Amino acid sequence: MEHYEAIVIGGGSAGLAAAIALGRSRRTVLVIDEGKPRNAAAQHAHNILGNEGINPLDFLSRGRQEAMNYGVQIIEGAVDQLGGSMETGFSVTMSGQAFSADRIVLATGLVDDLPPIPGLARAWGDTAVHCAYCHGWEVRDQEILVLGIGPMSTHQAMMFSQLSPSITFINHTPAALNDENRATLAALEIPVIEQAVQAIDFDAQGNLDSVTLADGRKVNAQALVVAGQMNAQASLYLSLGGQLAENPLGTFIQVNEMGATALPGVYAAGNASNLGAMVMAAAASGTVAGAAINADLLGSRLAKAPAPAKP
Ligand SMILES: Cc1cc2nc3c(=O)[nH]c(=O)nc-3n(C[C@H](O)[C@H](O)[C@H](O)COP(=O)(O)OP(=O)(O)OC[C@H]3O[C@@H](n4cnc5c(N)ncnc54)[C@H](O)[C@@H]3O)c2cc1C
Question: How many Å lie between the centroid of ligand 1 and the Cα of residue 106?
């Protein structure tokens, strides 16, 4: 079984940044990545300092090359089992191949759990968006419909009201709006339609055209704003005995400021531990986790070193 000082599970911006910090510290590092980054549906990534508007997959391809330049090994595939502990060493299994490691980084991202509205998946990442910082500028001044499906929907309407004067809130899931939310929308002069959305419609060219409401009425739209529940991809952490934390956005792996989880030797970074982290924040947390593991491994080495002879 091939042994590494660190195995990074997930090769998005968080995992690659962790791997680069470790590779540059001359650690033996393996990244195992299934290759499904969360923003793959988008053509451009924004708020990426020095790489503004870059295609998300090109960005990661550059990151992979940078990691490999420091000796990091990268293989494609999904880790299906993670076992062991810091004392015994960790075992990582991927399609029957087994590896061992002293430390683990979980950089597996999150899943956007979207409502099952026909057409939504097709528009996702293009004209159906979730984040004002990722796509807001691109939909500025457009006719924007906010799908009210959860506690974050009013917040989204508020954020996008900074970008377009034409915002309508569709109360798709009535539980999404409490009295306080209604007061916020009223204060921002955002009209509310009390109907569920039945389907999302596209014109002959394939562009978003409108939504069809439950009563058959159509409402024109150039952009939809929707935020599903966000849940960290954390089954491997759970299988080690870890527990998930929860906030209004969804469930995630709790870490300290260095990326360490409650399980010794297991670190987490990016969306797996911070549901709101954009690309730069995800990468930053990966760098911190990689640096923390390097220090952690140095500490272990010192702890095992023979005590100096007394003079
Ligand atoms: C549509 C959309 C557009 C966005 N646009 C922007 C933007 O413009 N700017 C911005 O800053 N942010 C944007 N974001 C947010 C951005 O996607 C995240 O900040 C970023 O992807 C988080 O990086 P990550 O490394 O934590 O996770 P990810 O990028 O999701 O990477 C996780 C990786 O882990 C892999 N993985 C998961 N489980 C396993 C496993 N068991 N074994 C092996 N590999 C596994 C996945 O396949 C994936 O490759 C956008 C998000 C969405 C949904």
Answer: 13
